[in-house]
Amino acid sequence: MNGNFTKLRGMKDILPDEIELWQRVEKAFIEVCEIFGFKEIRTPILENKYLFVRGIGATSDIVMKEMYEFKDKKGREIALRPEGTASVVRAYIENKVYITKKIARFYYYGPMFRYDRPQKGRYRQFYQFGVETFGGKHPFFDGEIVQILDISLKKIGIENFVFIVNSLGCRICKNKYVEQIKKNLQEKIDKFCEDCKIRIEKNPLRVFDCKNTFCKENLKEVPSILNYLCDDCKNHFDTFVNFLLKFNINFSINSNLVRGLDYYTRTVFEVSTEKDDIAIAGGGRYDNLVEEMGGPDIPAVGFAAGIDRIVQFIKKEDKEEKKPVYFILLGNNAKLKGLEILKECIKEKIMVEVDYEERSLSDNLRIANKIGVKWCLILGDNEIEKGIMILKNMKDGYQIEVNEKEIIKKLKEITKC
Ligand code: AMP
User: Fold this and answer.
1) Which is deepest, 25, 43, 196, 253, by most CB within 10 Å?
2) Cross-strand partners of 78
3) Residues 311, 252, 182, 202, Cα dihedral to 10°
């Protein structure tokens, strides 16, 4: 080990230059969620590995190939969360939220981890903003979260995106359909890739997630799941679709959309950009998961949006960035006096940047120029003696002397606080 550390594969640093974009996206989602009465929930990043095996499904790609798992010092099997829903469901059950809240609406935000092959827009640590609604069977609950996603993405400035929607039916419809396509796919199993051959036997719906073009081609003649829906599921889907029409949400129905996680029932949806077909969010209903994970029989619906991908599509705003006043404190006395002014600035929310190192005035001015600040406050022994401070405008070099008693008022004026 030579000490030259670099970040792990598939991980990335988000530096201050870029962070404004991330904060804008996060803020937009939070604002919209709060309007709709969703409350934030924060769950641990580490969970018992079997929470995800049970929640997401033992045959899903995430559990089979992509989980970061390890044993802790006591030999417990731990995983870094690969997605948010299983943890939120666990927290919902463990804290018995259902006792006090008939309908519980949550949103969450944070890093997720998947040991996938990194490429553009696919990382091993990535960020998701998600929502989960518990307790609502009505299809308008499905519509509501789609609407939240639609409003948020528009607010963020994403253009030309489309919701791909489908229904997987309830447990009964889904099982009937799975049996049927298993038979269909088994008949031509040789035409599928090695992974799909296993999928056909273990979990045929997963074949729809395969990226291989020849596997996709083979699926063209497979019957549509929409023809296998019972009356209740059909009604649910129609009502959901009507909701989307009512709110002018741009969508199209694709009966091959199954989503990569096993827990979905009835509504599933994905959002992708129309131009380059990049998935930026996905979600759906999971009416059995709460019960399957040891809770009561409570329906639920949710989505997760990929913030790394969303950030790619937006640009920095042109608005002028607020710059700090750069304090140049020459000598020990000035540094001590500077601290008093600093204390007042914090109280008045005046943005300040100080370099406490001992440097010459010219070095300090050079640094201030590099940072691109508009104003410097200069204080040395001379100024302290006279009871003044100098404010220098870095754009035109113009400078003024301000009585130290007036300095906070003047700083507020020039920084418009
Ligand atoms: P999922 O949890 O798989 O339903 O994914 C929901 C959204 O999270 C996707 O539409 C992507 O935008 C995003 N996402 C999923 N996996 C990754 C990844 N490895 N890197 C970046 N974003 C991801």
Assistant:
1) 25
2) 48, 70
3) 20
The protein residue whose alpha carbon is closest to atom 18 in ligand 1 is 122
Whether the CB of 111 sits within 6 Å of ligand 1: no
Measuring CA to CA, how many Å separate 165 from each of 11, 139, 145, 212, 272? 31, 13, 13, 22, 11
* Domains of the chain, start order: 16-170+230-313 (3.30.930.10), 325-415 (3.40.50.800)
Q: Six-digit token pair at 235?
A: 């009604």
Could you tell me the two tokens for 210?
Answer: 């395969």
- Is the C-beta atom of 287 inside 6 A of ligand 1? no
Please choose from 80, 112, 117, 163 the residue to mutate so as to test ligand 1's pocket, defined by most ligand atoms within 8 A of CB: 112
Please work out whether the CB of residue 145 comes within 6 Å of at least one atom of ligand 1.
no
Structure tokens at 191: 């035409």
> Per-residue pLDDT tens for 313-369?
998 776 777 889 999 999 999 999 999 999 999 999 999 999 999 999 999 999 999
Residue type, 286: Y
Segment 170-189, tens digit of pLDDT? 999 999 999 999 999 999 89
Q: What is the C-alpha separation between 22 and 18, in angstroms, rounded?
A: 7
Give the Å distance between the CA of 399 and the centre of ligand 1.
Answer: 53
